[in-house]
Design brief:
It contains eight helices and nine strands. By secondary structure, the chain is α+β, with helices and mostly antiparallel strands.
Length: about 260
Amino acid sequence: MLRAKPDSAAVAAVDLARDTLLQEAEPTDVGDHLGHVVEGERVVTHLFACTRPGYVGWRWSVTVARAPRQKLITVDEVVLIPGDEAIVAPEWVPYRERIKPGDMTPGDLLPVDDDDPRLVPTYSFGDDPLDADEKAQIRQVAQDLYLGRARTLSVEGRDLAAQRWYDGDGGPSAPIAQSAPDHCHGCGFLVRIAGPLSELFGVCANGDANDDGRIVSFDHGCGAHSEVRLAKKHEPQPLPDHVVDTVSLDELERF
């Protein structure tokens, strides 16, 4: 890509750019000329330091231009722009993309879009399978159209949930799982679930565990595993015999 040739008249129009800028800003807010940028053929932007309090790193930008075969330089625009060291607001992210699990409070509503890829019409995909014949269930849901749930998880929605659970605190990478003596798949407190996710996840039913009532992966684990046993060196040491038998008075009567 060829760069535009600098226009000598536009490049030299520093005083014109400053005079125009002083009509828009206070003289105390305008600093030194910082150079120019060639925007295009016969179009140049002059940059001036901004000395306004609170705008450290910002620059005044004055764009000038010259029409073909004309000597007159005109000013296109005057704007205040941030430089590399300027403090600017972070890029705006929609609230729907910023919300995290646990952010909702009682009374909050979080509507789901009609075209949310995580959901599909129940009649086209079937409800969560309760038996091995998923096709039979799809036919039954189609027959009972609108009598059950309107939408159910799509394959994409199911995979997103599975990945989120697996990567979270109930997955194998959690610190508590890394130091666990065994995995959840062999724990008596693991409650099996139905559906496609049953091949990888269950629910913890140990009231003493951190994950009680939560989804955990089979290769998750914690120190409350049902088959955990303390090593002999960790078992409580037996108490020594009493020096004086305080249960009966026979021994005391001797003294």
